[in-house]
Model the fold of this input.
Amino acid sequence: MSDPVPAATVIVLRPSDANFEVLMVRRHRGSRFMADSFVFPGGRVEPSDPSLLHAATREVREEVALVIDEQSLVPIAHWITPSSEPRRYDTYFYVTTMPPGQTAKHDAVETTELLWATPGDVLRRNEAGELKLPPPTICNLRDLSRHSSIEAVLGWARQKTIVAILPKLAPVEDSLAILLPWDRDYVATPGETRAIDASHPIAQGPSRFLLKDGRWWGKIQKI
Done:
């Protein structure tokens, strides 16, 4: 069991005719972590970073060429990679708005594509098999899709109590599943445990994701 590396991810929102869009990048096919998946800009905390917020803004600057004010970042989620994984991250997700007068551009090194789209559209494309999303990204997009404006997202995020989500990996139905902490089989599954009761406000949506055709499918029913 390895210790998770601190990391920070930033969800950048901009206004659109469909209320708002979210900025995503496609990780390189050769990446050792979440290869070829669409994710939010972010990465590990480096020794030179004095804080998580500094790491978050540095990663956004390096990956999508945006200069973000640290004070604009609002925490929205906290995910920890399962203890059975050899490469682990302890990641805080932050939300912010697109800074005026700037243009996002992917770095063409770690990432190969940049995407602006509504949360609902990204989720629909994932369900259709058009792109790949990791489970934490799916869950965050679902949270965002429940709101009709950037102001509503930011208001919700400022009032939200952040709870660490530590999934577990388990063999299920001749495949692999990611069990979230409120799944009925979570506690009995081997691995580091941080259970969350199914009645908790954070326990919305599915309780597990199944790996099928190289993708994590987020339409799995809550059980």
Notes: The longest strand covers residues 5-16. Residues 43 and 149 are 27 Å apart (CA to CA). The longest helix spans residues 52-64.
